[in-house]
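Demo today. Your pick:
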Amino acid sequence: MPFKSGRFQKKWRDSIPTIVFLVICLALWQIIVSYFKLPLWLIPSPIDVLKAFWNTRELLWAHTLTTLLETTAGFVLAIALGLAAGVAMVLSPLIKRLFYPLLIVSQTVPLIAVAPLLILWLGYGLLPKIVTVVLVCFFPIAVSLIEGLEVSDDDLLNLLKSMGATRWQILYMIRWPNALPSFFAGLKIAATYSVMGAVIGEWLGASSGLGVYLTRSSHSFRTDQVFAAIVAITILSLFYFVLIAGIRRLALPWLHTKED
């Protein structure tokens, strides 16, 4: 218990500079808007954003739930596909030679150019938004897993091979444990991208979601509501990031013991 308490106090002390800097930025923002009497439609003050967040909380929550559903479904599907692709490419050099270059090239195509095609092919329901999230999250998950699986102790690999271990046994006993830190690093990156993917899909065609809320608020010059939506998107992204970090702590406790 004292160890955990001390670790919590250390993390709290480490976060104080960030909190102080954030408070200073918000205070300066409020002072500038108030001093120059900037109009609400141009740039709202933090207090205006807070009021908009509270006054439209029920509507904002309804749109957030839609984005949450799309993001969660797409993120889980991206993890499953990333795991399958990563394992397949590591176990089969032929599959890697065929598909890894395509995986890299796919990242040169802007998502904003692909999303309209998904709307055209899949309609205006949840499916195109889920697919958009998958496209955003799949790359960092798959690449981080592949890189992690390929970095292993050569002596251990040769030892297991000399003992007649199969590729699956080597994967389970050596490659997978070594790949977990890299895999979770990719999950953290994908977690922060996932909400953005859902919002982009909603911009191009949807009836609900934070992207729809953003678009409607922007068209009506309710900049305070636009900032409120940005706050909601940020909170949602941080939620997924913290969730993955918590799962990583449970799955890899020895790493956090070293770090602490």
Observations:
- Residues 1-37 form one domain.
